Amino acid sequence: MYEIVLSDKAKRQLNKLDKSVQERIGAFIERIKVRPFSYDLKKLQGTPYYRTRVGEYRLILNIFGEKLIILVIEIGHRKNVYKN
What share of the chain is helix, strand, coil (3-state, %, to 5)? Predict the structure, then answer.
């Protein structure tokens, strides 16, 4: 089972969301711990990161397979999450 680590930025972004969205993302994170690649993960071009969707929200992840760690880098609405 993978360990989930949220970056400080991801924690702040998650706390700003509605409670219902927070619960939905939290439930998804619990499910992804077991087999992350069985979900809709897509590699982001030009980066080592992956993205997955939870409704209209996107999670940007980095997966360290050798250490069994999933780092959640960013959480945001689909229209804003890819902008730097």
Answer: 30, 35, 35
Extended strands (E) in 16-81: 42-43, 50-54, 57-64, 69-77
C-alpha separations of 26 from 5, 29, 46, 66, 83 in Å:
12, 5, 28, 24, 23
Task: Look up the pTM and report it.
Answer: 0.84
pLDDT in tens, 19-74: 999 999 999 989 888 888 877 889 999 999 999 999 899 999 999 888 999 999 99
Which residue range(s) make up the domain with 62?
A: 3-77
Q: Into how many domains does the chain fold?
A: 1
Query: Rg of the Cα trace of the chain?
Result: 12
Cα dihedral sign, 57-7-33-37: positive
